Amino acid sequence: MPTYHYALASQKFLLEEEPLDEVFKERYRNYEENNKEVDFWLVKQPAFLESPELQAVKAKCPQPCAAIISTSPQFITWLKLRLEYVAVGEFQSPSEAIPDALASLTAA
């Protein structure tokens, strides 16, 4: 069962107040140069927050929220240091409470 790591904040913070375009462009360029597959996604109103074990996290985050999800814990740690005002954590999927997260991410 894969582990996904996330940085979570309000949509306004992530999409309007922070220059995420720059962060993502640099990250995509780096991945392309190193022939690495993209392992991060920006998701509005992430469904994984509906799971019972993440209800407390959802309750603390201003709504509507957005998350940057990755299979790389280092990338999420870097984002936390870069963005500062984000909550970070992890979840496993698929699980009983969280369906296949990757299938829903790549379908979007």
Automatic annotation (TrEMBL):
Lineage: Bacteria, Bacillati, Cyanobacteriota, Cyanophyceae, Acaryochloridales
Family membership: Belongs to the ycf54 family.
Name by which UniProt lists this protein: DUF2488 family protein
Family annotation (Pfam families): Ycf54
